[in-house]
Write a structure and sequence with these properties.
Keywords: 4Fe-4S, Cytoplasm, Iron, Iron-sulfur, Kinase, Membrane, Metal-binding, Transferase, Transmembrane, Transmembrane helix, Two-component regulatory system. By secondary structure, this protein is of the alpha+beta class. 64% of the residues lie in helices and 9% in strands. Strands 1-2-3-5-4 form a 5-stranded mixed sheet, covered by helices on one side. A hairpin with a 3-residue loop joins strand 2 and strand 3.
Protein backbone atom coordinates (compact mmCIF):
# COMPACT_ATOMS: atom_id res chain seq x y z
CA UNK A 1 0.00 0.00 0.00
CA UNK A 2 1.35 3.43 -0.88
CA UNK A 3 2.26 5.53 2.11
CA UNK A 4 1.84 9.28 1.93
CA UNK A 5 2.60 10.33 5.50
CA UNK A 6 4.37 13.60 5.12
CA UNK A 7 2.10 14.62 2.25
CA UNK A 8 -0.06 16.64 4.63
CA UNK A 9 0.96 19.60 6.73
CA UNK A 10 0.91 19.79 10.54
CA UNK A 11 -2.68 21.04 10.60
CA UNK A 12 -3.90 18.20 8.42
CA UNK A 13 -5.38 20.54 5.84
CA UNK A 14 -4.21 18.36 2.96
CA UNK A 15 -1.52 20.73 1.68
CA UNK A 16 1.01 18.66 -0.21
CA UNK A 17 4.57 19.33 0.93
CA UNK A 18 6.33 16.25 -0.49
CA UNK A 19 6.76 12.62 0.60
CA UNK A 20 8.91 11.64 3.56
CA UNK A 21 11.60 9.07 2.57
CA UNK A 22 11.71 7.51 6.07
CA UNK A 23 7.93 7.16 6.13
CA UNK A 24 8.04 5.51 2.71
CA UNK A 25 10.44 2.85 3.96
CA UNK A 26 8.31 2.31 7.06
CA UNK A 27 5.25 1.88 4.85
CA UNK A 28 6.99 -0.71 2.69
CA UNK A 29 8.06 -2.58 5.82
CA UNK A 30 4.53 -2.58 7.23
CA UNK A 31 3.05 -3.73 3.91
CA UNK A 32 5.53 -6.60 3.72
CA UNK A 33 4.83 -7.48 7.37
CA UNK A 34 1.06 -7.53 6.74
CA UNK A 35 1.25 -9.99 3.86
CA UNK A 36 3.86 -12.07 5.65
CA UNK A 37 1.69 -12.30 8.79
CA UNK A 38 -1.43 -12.94 6.71
CA UNK A 39 0.29 -15.78 4.85
CA UNK A 40 1.74 -17.23 8.06
CA UNK A 41 -1.63 -17.14 9.80
CA UNK A 42 -3.36 -18.84 6.87
CA UNK A 43 -0.64 -21.50 6.67
CA UNK A 44 -0.85 -22.15 10.40
CA UNK A 45 -4.61 -22.56 10.20
CA UNK A 46 -4.43 -24.92 7.22
CA UNK A 47 -1.74 -27.02 8.91
CA UNK A 48 -3.58 -27.36 12.21
CA UNK A 49 -7.18 -27.48 10.95
CA UNK A 50 -7.18 -29.33 7.63
CA UNK A 51 -10.49 -30.26 6.11
CA UNK A 52 -12.70 -28.29 8.49
CA UNK A 53 -15.97 -26.78 7.31
CA UNK A 54 -14.80 -23.25 7.98
CA UNK A 55 -11.65 -23.66 5.88
CA UNK A 56 -13.22 -22.32 2.63
CA UNK A 57 -14.47 -19.31 4.52
CA UNK A 58 -11.03 -18.69 6.03
CA UNK A 59 -9.40 -18.90 2.61
CA UNK A 60 -12.01 -16.64 1.01
CA UNK A 61 -11.77 -14.06 3.79
CA UNK A 62 -7.96 -14.12 3.63
CA UNK A 63 -8.05 -13.46 -0.10
CA UNK A 64 -10.64 -10.72 0.44
CA UNK A 65 -8.50 -9.10 3.14
CA UNK A 66 -5.44 -9.16 0.86
CA UNK A 67 -7.38 -7.66 -2.04
CA UNK A 68 -8.86 -4.95 0.19
CA UNK A 69 -5.41 -4.10 1.50
CA UNK A 70 -4.09 -3.80 -2.05
CA UNK A 71 -6.93 -1.40 -2.94
CA UNK A 72 -5.60 1.18 -0.49
CA UNK A 73 -3.31 3.03 -2.92
CA UNK A 74 -6.13 3.35 -5.45
CA UNK A 75 -8.23 5.31 -2.95
CA UNK A 76 -5.51 7.88 -2.24
CA UNK A 77 -4.01 8.98 1.06
CA UNK A 78 -6.46 11.61 2.32
CA UNK A 79 -9.16 10.71 4.90
CA UNK A 80 -12.02 10.92 2.42
CA UNK A 81 -15.36 9.17 3.09
CA UNK A 82 -14.50 6.46 0.56
CA UNK A 83 -11.14 5.94 2.25
CA UNK A 84 -12.77 5.71 5.70
CA UNK A 85 -15.32 3.23 4.37
CA UNK A 86 -12.48 1.11 2.96
CA UNK A 87 -10.75 1.11 6.34
CA UNK A 88 -13.97 0.06 8.06
CA UNK A 89 -14.52 -2.86 5.68
CA UNK A 90 -10.87 -3.90 6.03
CA UNK A 91 -11.08 -3.96 9.84
CA UNK A 92 -14.44 -5.75 9.75
CA UNK A 93 -13.10 -8.55 7.51
CA UNK A 94 -10.08 -8.90 9.81
CA UNK A 95 -12.33 -9.13 12.87
CA UNK A 96 -14.39 -11.89 11.25
CA UNK A 97 -11.17 -13.76 10.47
CA UNK A 98 -10.01 -13.38 14.08
CA UNK A 99 -13.33 -14.73 15.35
CA UNK A 100 -13.09 -17.74 13.00
CA UNK A 101 -9.34 -18.22 13.44
CA UNK A 102 -7.61 -16.42 16.36
CA UNK A 103 -4.19 -16.88 14.78
CA UNK A 104 -5.02 -14.01 12.36
CA UNK A 105 -4.76 -11.63 15.32
CA UNK A 106 -1.07 -11.07 14.51
CA UNK A 107 -2.09 -8.98 11.49
CA UNK A 108 -3.22 -6.29 13.90
CA UNK A 109 0.13 -4.49 14.05
CA UNK A 110 0.10 -3.40 10.36
CA UNK A 111 -3.55 -2.45 10.81
CA UNK A 112 -2.49 -0.25 13.78
CA UNK A 113 -0.21 1.59 11.41
CA UNK A 114 -2.91 1.98 8.76
CA UNK A 115 -5.45 3.36 11.23
CA UNK A 116 -2.97 5.76 12.83
CA UNK A 117 -1.98 7.09 9.42
CA UNK A 118 -5.49 7.69 8.11
CA UNK A 119 -7.68 8.59 11.07
CA UNK A 120 -7.62 11.66 13.34
CA UNK A 121 -5.71 11.10 16.61
CA UNK A 122 -8.68 10.22 18.87
CA UNK A 123 -10.36 7.97 16.32
CA UNK A 124 -7.03 6.27 15.62
CA UNK A 125 -6.43 5.56 19.32
CA UNK A 126 -9.97 4.16 19.64
CA UNK A 127 -9.32 1.83 16.68
CA UNK A 128 -6.01 0.70 18.22
CA UNK A 129 -7.78 -0.04 21.49
CA UNK A 130 -10.47 -2.06 19.65
CA UNK A 131 -7.93 -4.06 17.67
CA UNK A 132 -5.90 -4.70 20.82
CA UNK A 133 -8.97 -6.02 22.61
CA UNK A 134 -9.60 -8.44 19.74
CA UNK A 135 -5.97 -9.60 19.88
CA UNK A 136 -6.21 -10.22 23.64
CA UNK A 137 -9.46 -12.15 23.20
CA UNK A 138 -7.92 -14.23 20.40
CA UNK A 139 -4.85 -15.06 22.47
CA UNK A 140 -6.99 -16.12 25.43
CA UNK A 141 -9.04 -18.39 23.15
CA UNK A 142 -5.88 -20.14 22.02
CA UNK A 143 -4.53 -20.54 25.54
CA UNK A 144 -5.40 -23.56 27.67
CA UNK A 145 -5.71 -21.39 30.75
CA UNK A 146 -5.48 -17.83 31.99
CA UNK A 147 -2.08 -16.31 31.24
CA UNK A 148 -1.36 -12.72 32.44
CA UNK A 149 1.28 -12.40 29.71
CA UNK A 150 -1.38 -12.86 27.03
CA UNK A 151 -3.43 -10.07 28.60
CA UNK A 152 -0.59 -7.57 29.12
CA UNK A 153 1.69 -8.23 26.12
CA UNK A 154 -0.69 -7.13 23.29
CA UNK A 155 -1.52 -3.76 24.92
CA UNK A 156 2.19 -3.20 25.52
CA UNK A 157 3.02 -3.98 21.90
CA UNK A 158 0.19 -1.72 20.74
CA UNK A 159 1.39 1.08 23.01
CA UNK A 160 4.97 0.81 21.74
CA UNK A 161 3.86 0.70 18.11
CA UNK A 162 1.59 3.69 18.61
CA UNK A 163 4.29 5.68 20.42
CA UNK A 164 6.85 4.96 17.70
CA UNK A 165 4.45 5.97 14.94
CA UNK A 166 3.36 9.18 16.72
CA UNK A 167 6.98 10.10 17.39
CA UNK A 168 7.92 9.57 13.76
CA UNK A 169 4.95 11.59 12.63
CA UNK A 170 5.88 14.49 14.89
CA UNK A 171 9.46 14.32 13.71
CA UNK A 172 8.25 14.51 10.13
CA UNK A 173 6.10 17.53 10.98
CA UNK A 174 9.04 19.26 12.66
CA UNK A 175 11.25 18.55 9.66
CA UNK A 176 8.64 19.98 7.31
CA UNK A 177 8.27 23.05 9.50
CA UNK A 178 12.05 23.48 9.60
CA UNK A 179 12.25 23.12 5.83
CA UNK A 180 9.48 25.70 5.42
CA UNK A 181 11.30 28.14 7.71
CA UNK A 182 14.50 27.58 5.79
CA UNK A 183 12.71 28.31 2.54
CA UNK A 184 11.31 31.51 4.08
CA UNK A 185 14.77 32.55 5.26
CA UNK A 186 16.22 31.87 1.82
CA UNK A 187 13.42 33.88 0.21
CA UNK A 188 14.05 36.74 2.67
CA UNK A 189 17.77 36.59 1.93
CA UNK A 190 17.20 36.69 -1.83
CA UNK A 191 14.72 39.55 -1.44
CA UNK A 192 17.18 41.45 0.76
CA UNK A 193 19.97 40.92 -1.76
CA UNK A 194 17.74 42.23 -4.55
CA UNK A 195 16.81 45.28 -2.47
CA UNK A 196 20.47 45.88 -1.59
CA UNK A 197 21.47 45.62 -5.23
CA UNK A 198 18.73 48.09 -6.19
CA UNK A 199 19.87 50.46 -3.43
CA UNK A 200 23.47 50.24 -4.58
CA UNK A 201 22.40 50.97 -8.14
CA UNK A 202 20.45 54.02 -6.98
CA UNK A 203 23.39 55.22 -4.88
CA UNK A 204 25.75 54.67 -7.80
CA UNK A 205 23.45 56.65 -10.07
CA UNK A 206 23.25 59.52 -7.58
CA UNK A 207 27.03 59.50 -7.09
CA UNK A 208 27.58 59.59 -10.83
CA UNK A 209 25.11 62.46 -11.20
CA UNK A 210 26.91 64.36 -8.45
CA UNK A 211 30.27 63.71 -10.09
CA UNK A 212 29.01 64.90 -13.45
CA UNK A 213 27.54 68.03 -11.89
CA UNK A 214 30.90 68.82 -10.30
CA UNK A 215 32.75 68.17 -13.57
CA UNK A 216 30.38 70.42 -15.51
CA UNK A 217 30.53 73.17 -12.87
CA UNK A 218 34.32 73.19 -12.72
CA UNK A 219 34.77 73.29 -16.49
CA UNK A 220 31.89 74.15 -18.79
CA UNK A 221 29.92 76.31 -16.36
CA UNK A 222 33.00 78.30 -15.28
CA UNK A 223 34.10 78.70 -18.88
CA UNK A 224 30.67 79.88 -20.00
CA UNK A 225 30.60 82.36 -17.12
CA UNK A 226 33.98 83.74 -18.18
CA UNK A 227 32.86 84.00 -21.77
CA UNK A 228 29.75 85.86 -20.70
CA UNK A 229 31.79 88.38 -18.71
CA UNK A 230 34.27 88.88 -21.56
CA UNK A 231 31.58 89.30 -24.19
CA UNK A 232 29.72 91.78 -21.99
CA UNK A 233 32.96 93.72 -21.55
CA UNK A 234 33.53 93.63 -25.32
CA UNK A 235 30.02 94.93 -25.92
CA UNK A 236 30.58 97.82 -23.53
CA UNK A 237 33.86 98.83 -25.18
CA UNK A 238 32.98 97.98 -28.78
CA UNK A 239 32.76 101.57 -29.93
CA UNK A 240 34.97 103.34 -27.38
CA UNK A 241 37.92 100.93 -27.54
CA UNK A 242 37.63 98.47 -30.46
CA UNK A 243 41.07 97.00 -29.77
CA UNK A 244 40.14 96.07 -26.21
CA UNK A 245 36.82 94.68 -27.42
CA UNK A 246 38.62 92.47 -29.91
CA UNK A 247 40.97 91.26 -27.20
CA UNK A 248 37.97 90.29 -25.08
CA UNK A 249 36.44 88.45 -27.99
CA UNK A 250 39.70 86.59 -28.72
CA UNK A 251 40.00 85.63 -25.05
CA UNK A 252 36.40 84.41 -25.06
CA UNK A 253 37.19 82.42 -28.20
CA UNK A 254 40.12 80.76 -26.43
CA UNK A 255 37.90 79.86 -23.50
CA UNK A 256 35.32 78.43 -25.91
CA UNK A 257 38.03 76.25 -27.45
CA UNK A 258 38.99 74.94 -24.02
CA UNK A 259 35.34 74.27 -23.20
CA UNK A 260 34.95 72.43 -26.50
CA UNK A 261 37.94 70.26 -25.60
CA UNK A 262 36.46 69.57 -22.18
CA UNK A 263 33.09 68.67 -23.71
CA UNK A 264 34.74 66.24 -26.08
CA UNK A 265 36.68 64.79 -23.18
CA UNK A 266 33.41 64.27 -21.29
CA UNK A 267 32.10 62.31 -24.23
CA UNK A 268 35.28 60.23 -24.36
CA UNK A 269 36.14 59.35 -20.76
CA UNK A 270 35.46 62.39 -18.55
CA UNK A 271 39.16 62.94 -17.88
CA UNK A 272 40.37 66.57 -17.69
CA UNK A 273 41.61 67.75 -21.07
CA UNK A 274 44.83 69.20 -19.56
CA UNK A 275 45.72 65.79 -18.11
CA UNK A 276 44.86 64.00 -21.33
CA UNK A 277 47.47 66.08 -23.16
CA UNK A 278 50.26 64.39 -21.17
CA UNK A 279 52.76 65.71 -18.63
CA UNK A 280 50.77 64.84 -15.52
CA UNK A 281 49.32 67.09 -12.84
CA UNK A 282 52.32 69.44 -12.59
CA UNK A 283 52.24 70.29 -16.29
CA UNK A 284 48.45 70.70 -16.16
CA UNK A 285 48.72 73.15 -13.22
CA UNK A 286 51.42 75.19 -14.99
CA UNK A 287 49.26 75.30 -18.12
CA UNK A 288 46.25 76.35 -16.04
CA UNK A 289 48.23 79.15 -14.37
CA UNK A 290 49.52 80.43 -17.70
CA UNK A 291 46.08 80.32 -19.26
CA UNK A 292 44.42 82.18 -16.38
CA UNK A 293 47.13 84.84 -16.50
CA UNK A 294 46.70 85.29 -20.25
CA UNK A 295 42.92 85.48 -20.03
CA UNK A 296 43.07 88.11 -17.28
CA UNK A 297 45.06 90.43 -19.61
CA UNK A 298 47.20 91.85 -16.85
CA UNK A 299 44.46 92.10 -14.22
CA UNK A 300 45.53 88.85 -12.52
CA UNK A 301 48.83 87.01 -12.39
CA UNK A 302 48.78 83.33 -11.47
CA UNK A 303 51.99 81.49 -10.59
CA UNK A 304 52.50 77.79 -10.05
CA UNK A 305 55.09 76.19 -7.78
CA UNK A 306 55.80 72.52 -7.07
CA UNK A 307 57.62 71.27 -3.97
CA UNK A 308 58.92 67.76 -3.37
CA UNK A 309 59.00 64.74 -5.61
CA UNK A 310 56.38 61.96 -5.60
CA UNK A 311 57.49 58.36 -5.07
CA UNK A 312 55.44 57.33 -8.06
CA UNK A 313 52.95 58.95 -10.44
CA UNK A 314 49.85 60.10 -8.64
CA UNK A 315 46.69 58.03 -9.20
CA UNK A 316 44.49 59.37 -11.98
CA UNK A 317 41.63 60.09 -9.58
CA UNK A 318 43.89 62.22 -7.37
CA UNK A 319 45.29 64.17 -10.32
CA UNK A 320 41.84 64.78 -11.77
CA UNK A 321 40.40 65.89 -8.42
CA UNK A 322 43.26 68.33 -7.66
CA UNK A 323 43.12 69.83 -11.14
CA UNK A 324 39.37 70.35 -10.87
CA UNK A 325 39.81 71.95 -7.45
CA UNK A 326 42.44 74.31 -8.87
CA UNK A 327 40.16 75.24 -11.76
CA UNK A 328 37.21 75.90 -9.46
CA UNK A 329 39.28 77.90 -6.98
CA UNK A 330 40.82 80.12 -9.67
CA UNK A 331 37.37 80.68 -11.16
CA UNK A 332 36.23 81.97 -7.76
CA UNK A 333 39.33 84.18 -7.52
CA UNK A 334 38.69 85.60 -10.97
CA UNK A 335 35.01 86.31 -10.41
CA UNK A 336 34.74 87.23 -6.72
CA UNK A 337 38.09 88.06 -5.12
CA UNK A 338 39.18 91.18 -7.08
CA UNK A 339 42.73 89.86 -6.69
CA UNK A 340 45.81 90.89 -8.65
CA UNK A 341 47.92 87.84 -7.80
CA UNK A 342 47.23 84.19 -7.07
CA UNK A 343 49.41 81.16 -6.57
CA UNK A 344 49.15 77.40 -6.99
CA UNK A 345 51.46 75.35 -4.77
CA UNK A 346 51.59 71.58 -5.15
CA UNK A 347 53.46 69.87 -2.31
CA UNK A 348 54.43 66.19 -2.27
CA UNK A 349 54.82 64.95 1.32
CA UNK A 350 55.40 61.25 0.72
CA UNK A 351 52.21 59.91 2.25
CA UNK A 352 50.02 62.75 1.05
CA UNK A 353 49.81 65.49 -1.54
CA UNK A 354 48.65 69.03 -0.78
CA UNK A 355 47.43 71.71 -3.17
CA UNK A 356 47.27 75.30 -1.90
CA UNK A 357 45.50 78.06 -3.85
CA UNK A 358 46.06 81.54 -2.44
CA UNK A 359 45.18 85.07 -3.57
CA UNK A 360 45.59 88.65 -2.35
CA UNK A 361 41.94 89.54 -2.91
CA UNK A 362 39.34 91.03 -0.64
CA UNK A 363 38.74 87.79 1.28
CA UNK A 364 35.64 86.88 3.26
CA UNK A 365 34.58 85.37 6.57
CA UNK A 366 34.24 81.59 6.16
CA UNK A 367 31.25 79.93 7.81
CA UNK A 368 32.14 76.53 9.32
CA UNK A 369 30.49 73.75 7.33
CA UNK A 370 28.57 76.18 5.10
CA UNK A 371 30.12 77.34 1.83
CA UNK A 372 29.55 80.89 0.68
CA UNK A 373 26.90 81.41 -1.98
CA UNK A 374 26.76 84.31 -4.36
CA UNK A 375 23.56 83.90 -6.30
CA UNK A 376 20.56 81.84 -7.14
CA UNK A 377 22.45 79.47 -9.41
CA UNK A 378 25.96 79.78 -7.94
CA UNK A 379 27.53 78.36 -4.82
CA UNK A 380 28.41 74.90 -6.18
CA UNK A 381 32.18 75.46 -6.22
CA UNK A 382 33.14 74.86 -2.59
CA UNK A 383 30.67 71.99 -2.04
CA UNK A 384 32.05 70.31 -5.17
CA UNK A 385 35.60 70.72 -3.89
CA UNK A 386 34.66 69.29 -0.51
CA UNK A 387 32.92 66.35 -2.17
CA UNK A 388 35.94 65.58 -4.35
CA UNK A 389 38.35 65.66 -1.40
CA UNK A 390 36.00 63.66 0.81
CA UNK A 391 35.67 60.90 -1.80
CA UNK A 392 39.45 60.45 -1.66
CA UNK A 393 39.64 60.55 2.13
CA UNK A 394 41.23 64.00 2.25
CA UNK A 395 40.52 67.37 3.88
CA UNK A 396 39.70 70.83 2.57
CA UNK A 397 40.49 73.91 4.65
CA UNK A 398 39.85 77.57 3.93
CA UNK A 399 41.68 80.47 5.61
CA UNK A 400 40.36 83.92 4.82
CA UNK A 401 39.49 87.25 6.37
CA UNK A 402 38.03 90.43 4.91
CA UNK A 403 40.78 92.39 3.17
CA UNK A 404 43.47 89.74 3.73
CA UNK A 405 42.95 87.39 0.81
CA UNK A 406 42.11 83.69 0.85
CA UNK A 407 44.07 80.44 1.03
CA UNK A 408 42.35 77.19 0.11
CA UNK A 409 44.21 73.97 0.95
CA UNK A 410 43.27 70.48 -0.27
CA UNK A 411 45.18 67.55 1.24
CA UNK A 412 44.75 64.01 -0.05
CA UNK A 413 46.40 60.99 1.60
CA UNK A 414 48.35 58.56 -0.55
CA UNK A 415 49.14 54.89 -0.06
CA UNK A 416 52.70 54.57 1.21
CA UNK A 417 55.33 53.02 -1.09
CA UNK A 418 55.78 50.13 1.33
CA UNK A 419 52.15 49.10 0.92
CA UNK A 420 51.80 46.42 -1.82
CA UNK A 421 48.55 48.03 -3.00
CA UNK A 422 50.48 51.17 -3.92
CA UNK A 423 52.67 49.26 -6.34
CA UNK A 424 49.62 47.45 -7.68
CA UNK A 425 47.73 50.67 -8.40
CA UNK A 426 50.82 52.66 -9.46
CA UNK A 427 53.18 50.37 -11.37
CA UNK A 428 56.51 51.91 -12.31
Amino acid sequence: MEHRSGARDAEGDGTVVGPDPDARWLALLMHAAFFLLLGASLSRFLMRHPGEARTPWIIALSITLAVLYLLGPVLGSRPTPRRLAWLGVLVAVWMVLVVLAPSFAWCAVPLFYTGLRILPPRAALALVALLTAFVVAAQLRLATGFDPNLVLAPPAVAAVATAVFVHMQRQAVRQRDLAARQRELIDDLLRTRRELAATERREGTLAERQRLSMEIHDTLAQGLSSQQMLLQAADRTWEADPAAARRHVRTATGIAERNLAEARRFVHDLAPADLAEGGGLEAALHALAARETAQAEGALTVRCHVEGTPYAPLPDRVQSALLRIAQGALANVREHADATAAGLTLTHLGDRVVLDIGDNGRGFTPEPGAPRTTGAVRGHGLPAMRARVHQLGGTLTIESAPGEGTVLSAGIPLTTPQDPTYLTENPT
